Amino acid sequence: MSKTIKITLSICAGFVVLLVAAIIVVPMVVNPNDYKPQIQTAVKGALGRDLTIDGDFSMSVFPWIGLSTGRLALGNAEGFPEPYFAEINQADIRVKLLPLISKKVEISRIVLNGLQLNLTKNKQGVTNWQDMGAKKQAQTTDVKQQATTQGGESMLAALAIGGVAIENANIQWHDVQQDKKIQIKDFFLSSDQLELGKQVPVNLGFNVIDQKSGMTQQLKLATDLMVDSNVQQFQLHNIKLQSISEGESIPGNKLEAGLAGNIDIDLAAETLSITGLQLSSGNLLLQGEVSGSKIKQAGEYKGRLNVPEFNLKKQLDVLGNKLSMQDSAALNKVAAHLDFEATNTSIDVNKLQLTIDESVLQGHVKVSNFQTPTTILNLSLDHIDLDRYMAPKSKKSDSKPVSPAAVAAAGATLLPVDMLRKLNLDGVIKIQTLNINNVDIKGIQLDLDAGNGVLKTSQTISSLYQGSYKGSSVVNVRGKTPVISLNEKLSNVQMEPLLKNWQTEDVKMTGQLNATAKLNTRGNSVKAIKSALSGNISFKLNDGVVKGINIQKIIDNTKALIDGAPLPTDNKNDESVFKAISGTGSIRNGVLSNNDLRAISSRVRVNGQGTVNLVAEKLDYTINGRVVKKTAEDQPEQIKGLPLIVDIGGTFKQPSYTVDIASMLLEKNKAKINEKADEVLKKLDEKIGPGVGDLIKGFF
């Protein structure tokens, strides 16, 4: 866009210079129309293009030497479809006669009407103005040398222009190589009297149309412009820029924005000042102040930006991004403030504060070397209630909340390998209190260290379900395949509130959990990560209670069936109390093996062993429970000292449970039990299967 504007201004300046030269050189007594061939020849020699002049020149003499033209058209380069590179319908310029005697140039209002500029890049990447480059550069060098010899600065100081008006200008940009067509329509530029060292009101506007996407943008600018006599100091005061963008790619199909402020640039002192900056869109307002030095070199800038409190939810609604959250007041109060220091290659935000409703984020962020960025950050959040920002709970929905394991699996999509390889980061993020599912998690700290293709994290939670968590991870993406390692530890975590937050059914297990996991894997997909998963885990649940099942009662039920007595009455408050449930496991290529599951209660001992295939999601596990010898003496001979064995198979979604009755009975009672086989199997399926299933589910 900037290149297009430069070309436009260059063309306009060329017409102005051409007209001024004609006014000064051509004697008053000479008919300027007689010199059309000479003008066309001069343009041909200078630019290599044909100049078409339609209509006659008209000329005035006193007190203004004036020249008006009809249509002028500059031919296009060879090989481009448009017949003309530039056209103008009418031009008018006048120079005051008497001040010329004292070497002062006073020009009346310059008017250029109906400019049409066709800019094109062909399939080979060649532009239709490229052939004018060498000649233009040579001419620019000559002009600069002449201006230096004749005192260019004094000439500029003696120049006064009564105003400029460019009306009904249109610019067409066609990039055949990229298949882009952009049109600038209804371009206008107007100003009051131009005089170096004095402020001049300037108005500018145009419409931009992307013909391929259909997006349009309307821009209008009003400002007071001042350029000093040495052309070193520039002022843009009372800036008022308005923008309206429309199109399907625009959020909400329409975006209105405004910019206001003052800009002062001193090229000699290499300083920049931006004051009263205000950028607005909807109910969002950004305010700021910026000062700079050494702007021709590396640049040294400092400033502050401030966003007063506004309704972010309402702003997003306007942009077509409507959010539905549990708390309708969420995101209604958002504000921000930051102080910064920067160069052309770095930025240091040393006082950052972001307020979201009742939450406040503070900290420091520094980014060095924009080409290969290195980021340092230290952020601290006092508290946040994530439940407020969650989607509303549906009363009709029967779907269960997603478990942490499911969340992890869903998140294990392809890693952004290219980004991680380039990432250079040293950061600390702290959260004092985080509320999720009505549980407060306190003392969260995440340490980040990334560089040379390796991302390391260290994370701690001081209060997690009345316990604590500590962990670390390493993601290495130096090679073709990412390598991941995890080291996690849970200490004294209460199972009941943990499970309550991740399932809708009644909690079946309570107790205090301690667990560790050291795992390694590789891959860049969920399946690959599961297949390569290896490592070791361990766990111990102290003072555990498994609700809904009473293992001793299962033994009593079996005795009743054998003796032909009625079954004991069911009790919904049945439970099995264990002093401890513990075990370890090893994982190799996605298969978990556990051979030492042990659960201890006052009268029952439970052991377990088997495998869990995490890749195929299949179970092959055996639970072995038996009454301790000390308490088994009062039991019938048939079950004294013998195990209660349950085989678990199937898949995660559809597990199967089989009770091994033969192992529970003495040989001499087999005949008796065979007589009641159907009844026994039915009763055990009803009474033992589901209860055992709940027990096993609780273990995992």
Task: Kindly describe this structure.
With 700 residues, the protein is an alpha+beta fold. Among the domains are: 1-195; 533-699, no CATH class. Helix content is 20%, strand content 48%. The protein contains 14 helices and 37 strands. The chain has a 34-stranded mixed beta sheet that branches. Strands 7-10-13 form a three-stranded mixed beta sheet. α10 runs antiparallel to α13. The longest helix has 24 residues, at 2-25. The radius of gyration is 41 Å and the shape is elongated. It starts with a helix and ends with a helix.
Low-pLDDT runs of 5+ residues are 146-152, 396-412, 635-640, 687-700
The first-to-last residue Cα distance is 62 Å
Q: Determine the strand fraction and express it as a percent band.
A: over 45%
Query: What is the overall pLDDT average?
Result: 80
Principal-axes geometry comes out as: elongated
Largest sheet: 34 strands, mixed
What is the radius of gyration?
41 Å
Number of strands: 37
Structural class: alpha+beta
The helical percent reads: 10-25%
Quickly count the helices.
Answer: 14
Q: Could you write a compact summary of the structure shown?
A:
This protein is an alpha+beta fold. Helix content is 20%, strand content 48%. The chain has a 34-stranded mixed β-sheet that branches.
